[in-house]
Design brief:
The complex is a heterodimer. By secondary structure, chain A is an all-alpha fold. Chain A has a domain at 65-231: MetI-like (MetI-like fold, Orthogonal Bundle), CATH 1.10.3720.10. In chain A, 75% of the residues lie in helices and 0% in strands. Chain A contains 11 helices and no strands. Chain A has helices at 2-35, 55-63, 66-97, 103-113, 122-131, 138-163, 167-174, 179-208, 211-216, 225-231, 242-277. In chain A, helix 3 (66-97) runs parallel beside helix 6. Chain A is globular and about 75 Å long. Chain B is mostly helical. Chain B has 12 helices and no strands. Chain B has helices at residues 2-55, 74-81, 83-115, 121-133, 136-147, 153-160, 174-201, 206-214, 219-247, 251-257, 266-276, 280-304. The longest helix of chain B is centred in the first third of the chain and has 54 residues, at 2-55. The radius of gyration of chain B is 27 Å and the shape is flat. The chains are: A mainly alpha, B mainly alpha. Chains A and B meet through helix 1, helix 3, helix 4, helix 5 and helix 6 of A and helix 1, helix 3, helix 4, helix 5 and helix 7 of B.
Amino acid sequence: MGGARRIVGRAFFYLLVAAIVVYTVFPFYWAIVSSLKEGSALYRVEALPPDPAWGNYAAIFAQQNFGRNILNSVIVAASVVAISLFLSVTAAYALGRIEFRGRKLMLLTILSVSMFPQVAVLSGMFELVSWLGLYDTLGSLVLSYLILTLPFTTWVLTTFVRELPKELEEAALVDGAKPFTIIRKVFLPIMWPALATTGLLAFITAWNEFMFAITFTLSNAKRTVPVAIALISGASRFELPWGRVMAASVIVTVPLVVLVLIFQRRIVSGLTAGAVKG
Amino acid sequence: MEAVRDRSELLGAAAAAEASQLTRQRRRWAWIFVLPMLAVLAAVAGWPLVRTIYFAFTDAHLADMQDWAVVGLENFRLLAADADWWTSVLNTVRFTVLSVAIETVLGTIIALTLNAHLPGRGLLRAAVLIPWAIPTVVSAQMWNWMYNDLYGVLNHVFLALGLVEGPLAWTANPDLALTAVVLVDVWKTTPFMTLLILAALQMVPAEIYEAAKVDGVHPLKVFWRITLPLIRPGLMVAIIFRTLDALRIFDLPFILTGNSRATSTMAIYARQQLVEFQDVGYGSAASTFLFVIIGIFTIAYITLGRVRLGAGEA
């Protein structure tokens, strides 16, 4: 009796696991399959493309200048990550290690800014961007994405720095080391894993952003990947460009999936530090 | 004796003076370290926010942002009288309640599964992270293709299983469009919810489960009576966090259904007024309204979440 019930329970359990995996992975699988179909094959529902074709992949690079879009996204995301990490390392040390007046208020402000709806700063940011002459340049995106990444990197790195043992800097303090030396010699060497995780999450945020990108850029030469994918059009009004849309989606997703698989443990701890542990 | 005590007191005072000087020095450095970050944050977040709120009280136009007049509460009055705006508010609320509720239930189930010891847990965790890592635009387009009324795989499967009589226009049918958006959001964001709940679950000591097992308590009862109360604080924080995210949703409905009134959210409405109709004043009023709502939830998050701000305490 008990044995049979346990077997049924187990079977139900694994069925649930299987359902979860299918639900999460199927759309991605379907995107890959569709990206390899051309012409009328795209409109037939088949589990595997009968004769895989790479035409969609060639077309987005030849006709949509997708390479340029990828380059734009890489430039923007890398600059945003570099600036955010640079500014937040010293700030995180101060916020996590030194008791000073206004520190709590500062942390609350940083947390609140990370909750801002993007649209709440849209008109002010538009004015700032045009005033700086950055409209329709990648600079407008680097500038505006700092709202999304800077509070996050500062917050997560502060959490990380705070968790480190007190003894770490005591010896250096006794030796009369200057705070800047302490950061460089004591903290930076052990912060690399945290910097890598935080940087990766900030990179993904910048890489995926859409609202600022579609508002502050106009020409295809300045578009980032998400905007390009949202605006891919067919050769004619009657041809559905889904094959190409799927090809572009697969191209930008594969590197992200590889990064996720490599860093999954770190991503999990970084994400939860940013949200719950605080 | 006197002299000795005096001396040690003197030494102590000197050390204290030195220590407080060091503390003061460190505080000065703290400001120097924080200042660049604060300056950038003020420039990219504080200033644009102040300007947006200010624009909400003007008749500014996108074509010429130098020339405007203060019109007081006129924009807010118009906003309150606009049926389309209230449709967007209602859509946002319905979307938020539906998606966050489904994500919480589903996230809890998946987190409990992941928390159980089973082979291939790492693989499952990776599978769960994939939808999270994909750009929203990409997931929206992937689903858009699956939703396609003529060639979409969903209609094909549903027809083959006999669940529907004819193909459904998932994104074009006003009655279905919001559900379609919710389905994609659930697919995309449940992983995040799962991770937060999993983090809470892993803090529940294993001995509690063992004791319940020894006493022969039914697993469902264990969940309701033991697990749920213990993970409630973490769960609440996760729910508020997701609610904040859902309230400002923009890209998912924008890609799936464009500016369609059936799925227009507060953020979509505000941006449409601002960018497409070039009415900066009116759009800013809508943005400010959304900002205030999010502000209320943020305060709830910070107070309920008992966010730790102390430097020293563990």
